[in-house]
Amino acid sequence: MSGMPLKDPLDLLDIDSVLTDEEREIQATVARFLADRVRPHIGEWFENAHFARELAPELGKLGVLGMHLEGYGCAGTNAVSYGLACLELEAADSGFRSFVSVQGSLSMFSIWKWGSEEQKQEWLPRLAAGEAIGCFGLTEPDFGSNPSGMRTRAVRDGDDWILNGSKMWITNGGIADVATVWAQTEDGIRGFLVPRGTAGFTTQDIKQKMSLRASITSELYFDDVRLPDSARLPLAEGLRGPLSCLNEARFGILFGAVGAARDSIQAAIDYADTRVQFDRPISAFQLTQKKLADMTVSLGGAALLAVHLGRLKDQHRIRPEQISVGKLNNVREAIAIARECRTVLGANGISLEYSPLRHANNLESVLTYEGTGEMHTLVVGQAITGYPAFR
Amino acid sequence: MNIVVLVKQVPDTAAERTLSEADHTLDRENADLVLDEINERAAEEALTLKEAVGAEVTVVSMGPDSALDAIRKVLAMGADRGIHICDDRLHGADVVTTAKVLAAAVRTVADVDLVLAGNATTDGQASAVPAVVADLLGLPQLTHARELTVDAGRVRVERETENGEATLDAPLPALVSVTEKINEPRYPSFKGIMAAKKKPVETVDLDDLFPDADADADEAGFRVTRTGVVEAVPRPARATGTRVTDDGSAGRQLVAYLIAQKLV
Amino acid sequence: MPDVLVLVDHDGERVHKCTYELLTAARRLGDPAAVVVGTPGTAARLEEPLARHGATSVYAAESTEADEFLATPAVDALELAVREVSPAAVLVSATTDGKEVAGRLAARLDGGLLIDAVDVDSCGVATQVVFGGSYTVRSQVTHGLPVITLRPGSFEPEERPVEARARQLALPPVDRVASARVTARRAALAGDRPELTEATVVVSGGRGVGGADGFKVVEQLADALGGAVGASRAAVDAGYYPHQYQVGQTGKSVSPQLYIALGISGAIQHLAGMQTSKTILAVNKDPEAPILGLADYAVVGDLFAVAPQLAQEVAARRAVG
């Protein structure tokens, strides 16, 4: 007796049923765009370490960039829709989800939330349209989980600021038209918008990556970069500025991880259905079914958690430790799923023709960036016990 | 300009299609339904004209409740309003009835300049529907257009069929059906998707469209089909053929097969 | 016997083969009566071959503008002929134009339309193959005049010489507000190969052919077999071969004795246009390609190795024979 394998493992729990028509349509539109424009090429792009920058204006036209922001050419969708777009983007490749997260939640959000009206008018419409690309410089070579120790400094010089230092692991850095850069000042941490081409601002792309290969990761250098005070984000004071942006981005990530996991499981189900050993599809063997069942159960939980957090966010009730729960769980589950799916694919699983190992490799970055698994564990630990155990 | 776009929801071509046991009509319940791909191109053409010369675009679809999704999709792409023809009595409608109903719906739109449709849908064989709608509305049929120009009250299309290419010219109002080559349809934008919810969609049934339905027709008061299926059987899979992997001699093996079959 | 109207498909000089197929099918239902729509003098030119294929009457629906407008003159002519002779049925070839003419006629007469039939019996029951060949449906008209379009290649044309009566139909002037004028025509380049829908052998190439150059291999095999060349939508979309050669749902439907698919995966849209072929051969590198499951003889292999070898073997055999 043979039946049809499940087309989408999320259908097991009818995850669609907790979404609105509009949310489903937005998700379907993103999925279709990616199926047409990204999926046919993504293996090659990953192998050649190529980021398809030409897709930025198309993503802008769809409304993906800064989609959850209001005004300035942004679509103004709810948070769940933004999450679902991230889910589909990461199901194609985390490189694209990372691009969109950085553009919308870090670069654009920092300007939208902390910028002056002039800064918003200057940058947001172009960033929303994908005509300009943004990046976000917080992490430094020696300061990752502990950004408050950052060495990049901005010093007053008359009406201007002089910026010195460097930033590391900056997605979109090498192609960004504007960088949101966080620096120590006399008054604490402040943010600055540094346009590409400003004297003393240079970038160097990080090559030879084994993860996020279809995305650009760079180092930023600031060597006596002179900036007018109008380059400073006037409303951002202290570490709260960058951390608020990271919370936005993490929200997209906890949906994105679900996408990578779903795509991996889909690949595994398809493969197991057609791969015949000992005269039957390997999907008919108990050990394969255990893998697929465990993974699909875990995927369903991750998806429901994501939508739940999305609903809280849309009600403006979400707390940072809840986002930590989401990122911690969903990325952890996703990377385990992607690796397990690779085993279902056997030797074929190491070929770029199949997505699970690519997703697993990408998720190594996702596990670490925007707060490592360890840090999110301690955020959750503090929320439960009341004791901070970070240091 | 007033443009009407006729669209249809069809089962996803990737999915297997079945006929319902009960009445041999296409089993739409068991298939994923999507806006027909060529219809999407008709909609794109309407929206391109709207952007170029200004137009109100009305999208018309006949089908069950789910056809509303197809209408919403075109509204999300940028059309202005929708007409959803929804009536259980239309189940199993033939080409003539389908065209009559669509024509009646087009007549409810004032001062139509252009009716746009896809030249075929992927679910049935009746690529004749647009031409029949044109006939019923007394409009010139400019079907199978690969290129469309509207200028000074006239419409010109480059027609492409298996018999070659032709240039067609007619005065407006007119009906144009487009081929899959005419354009690349846009993706609906998120703003469009959100705005589509607020656009008006009128739902009409047969009583609205034909207040004086045929007295001598079926009991329902309306002739739905003029043909009947005597028998529908899934075609037996072709007898499993010979299958070989080329070892360098497949060409010679093929010729031996053709000789045995008296084909060469 | 009642008349059965047959719309003649022609180019002004020559009757297309599909018309002879219609005349053959029409004999099952009654006396074939051919309707020729064209410029004055056309029917007289075509009368002899039509009569040779069994047309007992030839109706001339002629005017100077009959070939200047799309479809409308043919619909007008058939409508007139129906009103004049009250036929048992109207048969039209299931070409793009034929289906449109038939549909419009059925709507005007409130008749029953059976599209794309591959067979029709003496009771007027038509056989259709639907959904890319996955179903065979037998249907009949239950109300009004049967208007049936027959897929080209479904019938073997037979010569059945009769004496044809020449009749005239008074074609009305074309309503210019309701008709599209054909201002230019670029006929599909015929070349030396047989017409796709008339060929007994069709060799088609798909995306696997890899480019316009690769189609030379397809053409060489077609020429060796005296067949026509076809192309899948993927190959046409990729610009490898002109649209007029496209076989499938949005191209031509063919039913040859032998269909050879080279580098075609077998999307349902393609299968819809060729699945009624009598014998199907397929060559594809991908062992998963659906067309291989459909073929009477399937080769998993490189078409650039298999097709030239086959062409050479066939040519060698012809040379001997």
UniProtKB/TrEMBL annotation, chain A:
Q: Which InterPro entries match?
A: Acyl-CoA_Oxase/DH_mid-dom, Acyl-CoA_Oxase/DH_mid-dom_sf, AcylCo_DH-like_C, AcylCo_DH/oxidase_C, AcylCoA_DH/ox_N, AcylCoA_DH/ox_N_sf, AcylCoA_DH/oxidase_NM_dom_sf, Glutaryl-CoA_DH_mitochondrial
Give a yes or no for keyword Oxidoreductase in this entry.
yes
A GO BP term, please? fatty acid beta-oxidation using acyl-CoA dehydrogenase
Record-annotated Acyl-CoA oxidase/dehydrogenase middle domain positions:
135-225
SUPFAM superfamilies annotated for this entry? Acyl-CoA dehydrogenase C-terminal domain-like, Acyl-CoA dehydrogenase NM domain-like
**One matching Pfam family, short form?**
Acyl-CoA_dh_M
Highest taxon in the source lineage? Bacteria
- Domain Acyl-CoA dehydrogenase/oxidase C-terminal stretches: 237-384
Q: Which GO terms describe its molecular function?
A: fatty-acyl-CoA binding; flavin adenine dinucleotide binding; glutaryl-CoA dehydrogenase activity
Q: What's in the keyword line of the UniProt record? A: FAD, Flavoprotein, Oxidoreductase, Transit peptide
Record-annotated Acyl-CoA dehydrogenase/oxidase N-terminal domain positions: 20-131
Cofactor needs: FAD
**PANTHER family found in the cross-reference section:** GLUTARYL-COA DEHYDROGENASE, MITOCHONDRIAL (PTHR42807:SF1)
Family according to the record: Belongs to the acyl-CoA dehydrogenase family.
Protein's recorded name: Acyl-CoA dehydrogenase
Automatic annotation (TrEMBL), chain B:
> Domain Electron transfer flavoprotein alpha/beta-subunit N-terminal, which positions?
23-213
Kindly give the InterPro entries that the UniProt entry links to this protein.
ETF_a/b_N, ETF_b, ETF_beta_N, Rossmann-like_a/b/a_fold
Q: Which GO terms describe its molecular function?
A: electron transfer activity
What are the entry keywords? Electron transport, Transport
Pfam families with a match to the protein in the record: ETF
GO annotation, cellular component aspect = cytosol
Tell me its cofactors.
FAD
Main function: The electron transfer flavoprotein serves as a specific electron acceptor for other dehydrogenases. It transfers the electrons to the main respiratory chain via ETF-ubiquinone oxidoreductase (ETF dehydrogenase).
Spell out the subunit comment. Heterodimer of an alpha and a beta subunit.
Q: Which PANTHER family match?
A: ELECTRON TRANSFER FLAVOPROTEIN BETA-SUBUNIT, ELECTRON TRANSFER FLAVOPROTEIN SUBUNIT BETA
Family membership noted in the UniProt record: Belongs to the ETF beta-subunit/FixA family.
Report the protein name in the record: Electron transfer flavoprotein subunit beta
From TrEMBL, chain C:
Any one GO molecular-function label of the UniProt entry: electron transfer activity
The protein's superkingdom reads Bacteria
**Annotated binding of FAD, by residue:** 207, 232-233, 246-250, 263-270, 284
Please state every residue range assigned to the domain named Electron transfer flavoprotein alpha/beta-subunit N-terminal. 4-186
Q: Which GO terms describe its biological process?
A: fatty acid beta-oxidation using acyl-CoA dehydrogenase
What are the names of the required cofactors?
FAD
Which SUPFAM superfamilies does the protein's record reference? Adenine nucleotide alpha hydrolases-like, DHS-like NAD/FAD-binding domain
The record's keywords, sorted A to Z, are: Electron transport, FAD, Flavoprotein, Transport
Protein family according to the UniProt entry: Belongs to the ETF alpha-subunit/FixB family.
In its UniProt entry, what is this protein called?
Electron transfer flavoprotein subunit alpha
Q: What is the lineage of its organism?
A: Bacteria, Bacillati, Actinomycetota, Actinomycetes, Kitasatosporales
